[in-house]
Automatic annotation (TrEMBL):
<dbReference type="Pfam" id="PF00394">
    <property type="entry name" value="Cu-oxidase"/>
</dbReference>
<feature type="domain" description="Plastocyanin-like">
    <location>
        <begin position="2"/>
        <end position="161"/>
    </location>
</feature>
<dbReference type="GO" id="GO:0052716">
    <property type="term" value="F:hydroquinone:oxygen oxidoreductase activity"/>
</dbReference>
<keyword id="KW-0186">Copper</keyword>
<dbReference type="InterPro" id="IPR001117">
    <property type="entry name" value="Cu-oxidase_2nd"/>
</dbReference>
<dbReference type="InterPro" id="IPR034285">
    <property type="entry name" value="CuRO_2_LCC"/>
</dbReference>
<comment type="function">
    <text>Lignin degradation and detoxification of lignin-derived products.</text>
</comment>
<keyword id="KW-0964">Secreted</keyword>
<dbReference type="InterPro" id="IPR008972">
    <property type="entry name" value="Cupredoxin"/>
</dbReference>
<keyword id="KW-0560">Oxidoreductase</keyword>
<keyword id="KW-0439">Lignin degradation</keyword>
<keyword id="KW-0052">Apoplast</keyword>
<dbReference type="InterPro" id="IPR045087">
    <property type="entry name" value="Cu-oxidase_fam"/>
</dbReference>
<protein>
    <recommendedName>
        <fullName>laccase</fullName>
        <ecNumber>1.10.3.2</ecNumber>
    </recommendedName>
</protein>
<dbReference type="GO" id="GO:0048046">
    <property type="term" value="C:apoplast"/>
</dbReference>
<dbReference type="GO" id="GO:0046274">
    <property type="term" value="P:lignin catabolic process"/>
</dbReference>
<keyword id="KW-0677">Repeat</keyword>
Amino acid sequence: MEVPVIFGEWWRADTEAVLSQALQTGGPPNVSDAFTINGLPGPLYNCSAKDTCFVVGGTRETYMLRLINAALDDEFFFSVPNHTLTIVEVDAVYVKPFTVKTLIISPGQTANVLLTTKPLYPKANFYMLAAFYLGYQNPRDPLRPSTINNTTAAGILEYQNPGSPSAPSSDEDLPLFKPTLPRFNDTGFVANFASKLRSLVTPQYPAAVQWSVDKKFFFTVGMGTFPCPMDTACQGPINGTRFVAAVNNVSFVLPSMALLLFF
């Protein structure tokens, strides 16, 4: 059985206004008010009235979770306690299957993951948690509430109760297990996870890679700061600066004239 699991964000504000404010101030955009799984934030938020529940039919069954990170700018750790996740495909490309307890998924990324249910009815429910990963922090810029969303979206994995085939095991008396996720800045975990991504290439079925290279290009893509214009208050990580993205230390400047007029 295939189950879509879509990670997203919920905003009280107009997202266009959030972006416009960030561009004007030079600081990071305000964070979302909640993370969501299949459109719902889950029971870990005070505002949540309903849960995202995933009911599995029985024991020793394998489900394919089709993970989609639809968030604007957040990478997520994802885990289900007492279960393992086998990654078989990432961004529509098959990979050598590998099993983890926690995975990382980036904005716009997709992954197909196999989850096998317990051999016996566990008499418990399980949180499926998604929490953000912050890949970089300026040591001179302490974390501020406006720059991170330190909250967690939750779904609940429920087993069909064999004693009650018509209803899942949504019994409040059952224990509800929660996974332990990596710290928000655990770059070592992310690097270790990424190192496990391998293609299906084998000696018997090699990939036709072009070995003859005519030209080489080197690109450095990063985030930096730029002095704030005079008589302007910017809210970047260092006083008097604004955030900028750059390729080879050059930032894009929107031209004042339409590009087609240059030709």
